[in-house]
């Protein structure tokens, strides 16, 4: 297990994946909470069967996999459905996430989680790193990247912690406003050196 766990978070469209991939390219092990969330609903799992029972086969893609975009549309417009889904999946996600973190063996490990603060996952990390951009950039980048409409994206943003609270919870911040990848690479490299040093103490 790694000596140090860094929680990497940021709002939708902030560039968490870009930043995470730069750390991973430096040899850092990472556990992605979104990937874990996908893993616990793969075809054949009990949790996927429960979701199909509730929403019918219409919630599946032609491949038999969960239609995550369709599910997202349902739960982000209905608090009761969102609560039901969270009650089903969060314990499973947490259990697998902790197993995966325990298997990390680089000097420090990343826990990549959009809802790190909201879901109280900060108790599993030693330091919190926030990838930050202004909210209008979040919206613009997400509209460009996803097929969701603006209303859904704004609801997702609203469901996440405010930018001000997220920054207040940060031990470290990467400003990802720049479109110049070299600027972000330099920020990541400096933090990589800092985290490696922290892990060795």
From TrEMBL:
Catalysed transformations (reactions): 3'-dephospho-CoA + ATP = ADP + CoA + H(+)
Keywords: ATP-binding, Coenzyme A biosynthesis, Cytoplasm, Kinase, Nucleotide-binding, Transferase
Main location group: cytoplasm
UniProt subcellular location: Cytoplasm
Gene Ontology CC: one annotated term: cytoplasm
Enzyme Commission code(s) on record: 2.7.1.24
PROSITE patterns given in the database record: DPCK
Binding residue positions for ATP: 13-18
GO molecular function, one term: dephospho-CoA kinase activity
Pathway: Cofactor biosynthesis; coenzyme A biosynthesis; CoA from (R)-pantothenate: step 5/5
GO biological process: coenzyme A biosynthetic process
Superkingdom field: Bacteria
Keyword Kinase: yes
Enzyme class, broadest EC rank: transferase
PANTHER family: BIFUNCTIONAL COENZYME A SYNTHASE-RELATED, DEPHOSPHO-COA KINASE-RELATED
Cited HAMAP family: Dephospho_CoA_kinase
Job description of the protein: Catalyzes the phosphorylation of the 3'-hydroxyl group of dephosphocoenzyme A to form coenzyme A.
Family per similarity comment: Belongs to the CoaE family.
Protein name: Dephospho-CoA kinase
């Amino acid at each position: 297990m790694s000596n140090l766990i860094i929680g990497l978070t940021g709002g939708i469209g902030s560039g968490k994946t870009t930043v995470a991939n730069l750390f991973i390219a430096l040899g850092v092990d990472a556990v992605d909470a979104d990937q874990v969330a996908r893993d616990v609903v793969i075809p054949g799992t009990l949790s996927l069967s429960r979701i199909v029972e509730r929403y019918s086969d219409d919630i599946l893609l032609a491949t038999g996999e969960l239609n995550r975009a369709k599910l997202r549309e349902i739960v982000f417009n209905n608090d009761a459905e969102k609560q039901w889904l969270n009650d089903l999946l969060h314990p499973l996600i947490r259990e697998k996430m902790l197993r995966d973190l325990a298997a990390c063996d680089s000097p420090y490990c990343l826990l990549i989680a959009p809802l790190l603060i909201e879901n109280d996952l900060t108790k599993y990390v030693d330091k919190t790193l926030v990838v930050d951009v202004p909210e209008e950039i979040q919206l613009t980048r997400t509209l460009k990247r996803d097929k969701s409409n603006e209303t859904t994206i704004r609801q997702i943003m609203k469901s996440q912690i405010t930018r001000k609270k997220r920054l207040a919870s940060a031990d470290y911040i990467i400003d990802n406003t720049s479109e110049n990848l070299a600027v972000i690479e330099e920020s990541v490299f400096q933090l990589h050196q800092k985290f490696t040093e922290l892990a060795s103490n």
